[in-house]
Specification:
Trp Operon Repressor, Chain A; single chain; elongated; 7 helices; binds S-adenosylmethionine
Length: about 240
């Protein structure tokens, strides 16, 4: 796994990322140079007076499309600044992003992300650049910026040294090595409105606590996400 991952984000609205990058774990990861995030305003590649990035679709229909002759040169220039990296283009029609995909991206040194807006991109953007088309779910956002934030945040959690406790993401739901849902967690007070913390967690017996957590993970996966227990062969895949 590389020690620093560089995310290049190509967007029409770089200021959307300001708050996101200046708080909490992300702020720390940037300061510690565990990740680098470079924001590129695609409008800088528009050479006309109005910095036009979009145009009406041929054949008519609603909405505007991002222009191929603006987007392609922009991506090419950014990719050629150093090793091209992995190029992701956000679209609701792409491969669905999940933890496994994030683990795969966490092995990259550079991830270049192309955020759409309006009705999306002229189809030739994908034909020419051959990006990996990525969706964050079966719903429609206004643009790819939120999707880029989802990818940055999910991937950066997997970089060694970003989270205070190295074990934090080992037992997270969906993670390799866990694959099922995380167990229930409790903190003080021990009792609240008649609801108590399970006695075993107060026992100090680490072996029994681990066993309880494993059982609790399996139980809640059966209840909430039974699909996770069914592998391609139809067998259960318990925590390993
Ligand atoms: C309004 S959407 C365009 C949707 C497009 N007309 C369609 O139905 O496939 C504008 C942009 O938002 C982004 N976007 C919207 N929903 C997304 C999703 N579920 N996952 C990733 N990106 C999404 C994409 O970059 C897309 O080009």
């Amino acid at each position: 796994m590389p020690s620093v991952i560089c995310f290049d984000v190509l967007t029409l609205f770089p200021s959307i990322f300001e708050g996101f990058l200046s708080e909490s774990v992300l702020k720390g990861a940037l300061a510690a140079q565990k990740i680098e995030v470079r924001l590129h305003n695609m409008r800088d590649w528009a050479d006309d007076k109005h910095a036009t990035m979009d145009d009406r679709p041929f054949g008519g229909g609603p909405g505007m499309l991002l222009k191929v002759d603006r987007v392609v040169p922009c991506v090419e220039e950014i990719q050629h600044q150093q090793q091209p990296g992995r190029l992701l283009m956000f679209t609701p029609q792409g491969r669905c992003f999940n933890q496994r995909f994030a683990e795969e991206l966490a092995t990259e040194q550079r991830i270049v992300m192309l955020c759409g807006r309006y009705e999306g991109f002229d189809e030739r953007v994908a034909e020419i650049l051959k990006p990996e088309e990525v969706s964050i779910g079966d719903y429609i956002l206004n643009g790819g910026e939120v999707a880029a934030m989802v990818v940055i945040e999910t991937v950066m959690r997997l970089i060694r040294g970003v989270l205070g406790d190295e074990d934090s993401n080992r037992f997270d739901s969906f993670s390799t090595g866990n694959r099922i849902l995380d167990c229930a967690h409790y903190t003080r007070p021990r009792e609240y409105r008649g609801f108590s913390v399970p006695e075993i967690l107060l026992s100090g017996n680490h072996a029994e606590i681990a066993q309880w957590r494993n059982n609790n993970s399996l139980q809640r996966t059966k209840e909430k996400r039974p699909d996770l227990l069914v592998t391609a062969s139809g067998n259960s895949s318990p925590k390993n």
